[in-house]
């Protein structure tokens, strides 16, 4: 079975965790930490990274195996022996992909590589030359124009997409129709973590609902020290991110909360946390007789490995779709792995739908 050929836009912490993990599982043969051991016959180690795209001078021109360990990446190194892939990181197109404050933050920020930015045709040619099958979008939050630029490139190059960031592509009917027409599958938008703030918040909110308690108000405040949190210091870049995370929680409630009673989103950048993300979550509600109750939770996770577990599954689902000749938005994988899918389902329902989809039974199309 040939490996799945993957191109990566944004060789940051998430890409580092994904690449490390692929070689970790290839070397160990372990299934620990995986959501699915195999999907369509493909294991977590059956990925081949064929192209990287970034704009940071410390990464451009390097082999992906070296670029994933370059600053400002600061995620946990759990598999340091990543062999050369033979795939270089090329300079991409910036557009709105780099917030101004990220270029004045020294080592912790972005250092834009000298030279001209890539044109659309150059990215398309690079994808075709690399024979990429699936493009992974790891651009920073708020990169609306940049994300759309790369989606156009994927469509022209004939490459499927996993949209891991909160620019709405798969959940936008116009973009979804473009992928359908081009005969390409897409999964999105905004990848969930394996066991992260959003999925825990959804689970607790659902627990209130199924046990007959009413959620009156809730918040989720997050801190972290990676470039994602630094990037989000520019609050103007947060519109789609807050919408994505808020809707993911709202959809798990028995009744939607008024805007003033729900706050979901990043809170602060704490440099020394590095890729560690800490979530402070509170749910206030009422139970029997209208008596008040509340739950408070503190969750600490390594942010990027937490996402990689879902990304590697989404990639394999995309590959299965390519082999089946499916196109457009993959409903079940998007619902299970993403915060802002085209249609929200409960986590239990999404998991059942995903199982049906992976098995390839006819019900997956209903």
UniProtKB/TrEMBL annotation:
GO molecular function: inositol-3-phosphate synthase activity
InterPro entries per the UniProt record, alphabetical: MIPS, Myo-inos-1-P_Synthase, Myo-inos-1-P_Synthase_GAPDH, NAD(P)-bd_dom_sf
Family annotation (Pfam families): Inos-1-P_synth
Residue intervals passing through the bilayer: none
Myo-inositol-1-phosphate synthase GAPDH-like domain location: 196-304
Biological processes per GO annotation: inositol biosynthetic process; phospholipid biosynthetic process
Protein family (similarity comment): Belongs to the myo-inositol 1-phosphate synthase family.
Identification of the protein by name: Inositol-3-phosphate synthase
